[in-house]
Amino acid sequence: MLEMEQYVNKNRREYLDSLFTFLRQESISAQNIGMEACSAMLVEMVENIGLNTSLIETDGHPVVYGEKIKDPKLFTLLIYGHYDVQPPDPIEEWNTPPFEPTIKDGKIFCRGAGDNKGQIMAQLLAIKSYQEVIGELPINIKVVIEGEEESGSPNLARFVEEHQKLLKADLVYTSDGPMHDSGAPFVLLGVRGMLFIELLAKGAEWDNHSGNKGNIAPNPAWKLIDLLQTMRDQNGNVLIEGFYDDLRKPTENELELISTLPFDPKSIAEKIGYKEFDMTKEAYYKKLTLEPTFNIAGFHSGYGGEGAKTIIPSIANVKIDFRLVVDQDPDDIYRKIEKHVKKYAPDVEIIRHGSMKASRTPADSKEVAIIKKAVEKSYHQKPILQPSLGGSLPDYVWTQLLGVPSVVVPYANFDEANHSPNENINVENFFDGIMCTCHVIHELGKAYA
């Protein structure tokens, strides 16, 4: 692969220009800003690397699909990514313009640099580089790049269900998220699922004076606090009946994987900004990858501005995200939450904002072994194999709907600040991602020749 590396190095400026053009095009799915222009741009980019490309409409933003089928009987790799990005807010916290890629201290700062434009562009440029150097691809390649991942991928499952023949593949390969905090490459075998809800409590029809109407007008904030205490105990255990019923017991293989993972509690404490962090390695990785969560993402009621305003608020709301593990079904968990709320606070309204199923690929599969080998050859070190990502991606559409194994190999640096101001990707991480994808294609070609 030395010739490939030389070719990529020779074309660094051109490849950065391609990435920068992609980054400058806004594509905020939540606000429908720039989505049509970005998808059209991406179609042209995918066509230019030699794939047969089409724009496939959904009930939301379209999917950019590309393929290069050498022989239908050959191994087929499906590469997944997304072209939409998070809103840049708060703008004032950016040190550079959020949609003007800027290189500083070896990093490319721009919204989407790490999540996910930089990583999907690395994969596309790898396909181009491989064809330019070797002459033809050794396997079939399919590319699915959606425009709604940052909004929960509401239409991806239906897209996969309606295009199963088109999307037929032997392995799905995703590059998203950050590498391990040690800087080592990751091979992730799954993701946690997610359910996002809001609980809304109402008191009087308007805010009231906390003295003149104190003990008279009800305070909905207390109603939510009392309800929340029936849902989770002080040790973090979820008290919703049946919440843990369908937890899949970790395999011996998965527990063995955890025992081999690197662990630096001091580094973790610094990187999460919590000096009191105190956890064993086994507990840390179990909680991060194999156990569900109950998280209050936001709680609002009454006055939160400067100074004092003595009121009894009329409304209170709390936003909660549950990270779920296989085989927890978000629909089933939602029904159990509904039942719990009806029992303890029947006048509290539940609003469902989105959900995603968890996913897991067996660690002992042949495809995983090949990906591990390719990543090790690319980075010249053994990758960290982890049962699951702590976060959520729509990986289940591949493992459960398409019925194929799926792996996630992040290319972005651990401090990419995705979803935050000053999002970035290291310049070298971008080029390492190109080379890693080249190695993946090459090793799959050798294994399935």
TrEMBL record:
Domain Peptidase M20 dimerisation intervals: 207-347
Record's keyword terms, sorted: Hydrolase, Metal-binding, Protease
GO molecular function, one term: metal ion binding
Keyword Metal-binding: yes
PANTHER family in the record: BETA-ALA-HIS DIPEPTIDASE, DI- AND TRIPEPTIDASE DUG2-RELATED
Record protein name field: Succinyl-diaminopimelate desuccinylase
Superkingdom of the organism of origin: Bacteria
Secretion signal span: none
Pfam family, one: Peptidase_M20
Species, as recorded: Virgibacillus massiliensis
Encoding gene (name): dapE_1
Keyword Lyase: no
GO BP terms, alphabetized: proteolysis
